[in-house]
Design brief:
By secondary structure, the chain is α+β, with helices and mostly antiparallel strands. 26% of the residues lie in helices and 39% in strands. It contains three helices and 23 strands. Helix 2 packs antiparallel against helix 3.
């Protein structure tokens, strides 16, 4: 039997193809064996501690307002004939004005009384006339009733006399009311302070012609003040009526104490904020309307987990979210696994997070250079 032999041009071609195939396979295996594996990245790890009790104090900017503030106006028109005189800081007498403290019931200014006294006299004369007419009508009605009882007077004449009596009686009542009104206007010729407080403004002078719409004085009671601030809906659970809150002003070292006296039942439609009012005792009148203050809401204790801020990285393709690199072992190799977390309150160099468990290790240094699944090497 002859040995099997490949001859001719076709045999050479087959040998070449076979050689190239074997060489390619061997070359490929040699190339894969030479590919270098990714070197672990050097990082530092931080072990997640057990949850700690913490609290968050919220502060809001607030405005200080008077406890009560009114605009004082005369009840009737007239010329100002007197403005109360006080002694100024320079020792000279001057008209009472802005910044002066007044006691309740103090008369601040007068308008001309002659005009009002004339109105009182006119009302008195009208009352006297109405009384005289009523007296005559009463006598006529008495006679008419006697005649009607003996059938000496017709019923229409009797009813007419009775109507005259009733009309004059009503006229007397109206005249008395007009006299009382004129006397009240005369009594209000002097403008008095309705409560003790400071004058914020004076808009009249001696000789000014005023009317019931003229704002003569603005007076404010600051023996107590109202501290007002706006709170969003998620904060309302921390506020209740009668609650004691701390108020701090820029110029005071010691804080003030106040009590919540009003919480708006509805939010402002423009900013969705609820108005909260705190009343503060101000006997020494140190707090002044217009001052800026801050109100501190109490802490709400809760358990939270904190990690270093340096461990937080942006979450890929979701820039509004964040993540951390958690160290995990895979096949004997330590790798970084990206995990999405929810951030909370920041404190100095740490941040409260949700999404990691106590005992887990997160990359605290070098996290920004890692990708999910990268091998890592821990350095001290």
């Amino acid at each position: 039997m002859k040995p099997f032999m490949i001859t001719g041009h076709k045999s050479n071609t087959l040998l070449v193809l076979l050689f190239l195939s074997v060489a390619g396979v061997l070359g490929g295996c040699h190339h894969e064996s030479q590919l270098p594996s990714q070197a672990p990245r050097a990082v530092r790890l931080e072990t997640v501690a057990a949850p700690q009790t913490s609290g968050e104090t919220l502060r809001y900017s607030a405005s200080i307002l008077p406890y009560a503030q009114v605009d004082l106006m005369f009840r009737s028109s007239g010329y100002v004939t007197n403005v109360r005189q006080v002694r100024g800081a320079d020792g000279r007498t001057r008209d009472i004005g802005t910044g002066d403290y007044v006691e309740k019931g103090l008369t601040l200014a007068h308008i001309r009384r002659d005009d009002l006294q004339s109105q009182v006299a006119q009302a008195q004369a009208q009352l006297d006339q109405a009384v005289a007419q009523h007296t005559k009508a009463a006598q006529d009605f008495q006679r008419a009733r006697a005649l009607y009882s003996t059938q000496s007077l017709t019923k229409p004449d009797y009813e007419q006399s009775q109507e005259a009596f009733n009309a004059t009686h009503a006229a007397v009542d109206n005249a008395r009311a007009a006299l009382r009104q004129a006397e009240l206007l005369l009594g209000d010729a002097g403008l008095k302070a309705p409560f003790s407080g400071y004058i914020l403004s004076r808009n009249i002078d001696l000789g000014s012609l005023v009317s019931p719409s003229t704002n003569a004085f603005t007076i404010a009671d600051i023996g107590r003040v109202k501290v007002t601030f706006g709170a969003p809906d998620y904060v309302l659970s921390r506020v209740r009526l009668g609650q004691e809150l701390t108020i701090q002003t820029e110029n005071d070292v010691a804080p003030w104490k106040g009590w919540v006296t009003s919480i708006s039942p509805a939010a402002d439609t423009r900013n969705r904020i609820f108005a909260v009012e705190v009343t503060v005792s101000n006997r020494d009148r140190h707090l002044r309307p217009g001052m800026i203050a801050s109100v501190s809401l109490p802490e709400v204790p809760h358990l939270s987990i904190s990690i270093p801020l340096s461990a937080v990285v942006p979450f890929p393709s979701e820039p509004e979210h964040f993540g951390v690199m958690v160290a995990q072992e895979r096949a004997g190799t330590l790798v970084a696994t990206l995990r999405r977390v929810q951030l909370g309150t920041t404190h100095d160099t740490s941040v409260v997070v949700e999404g990691v468990q106590p005992g887990e290790r997160v990359v605290s240094v070098g996290a920004q250079l890692l990708k999910n699944g990268d091998p890592i090497q821990v350095i001290p």
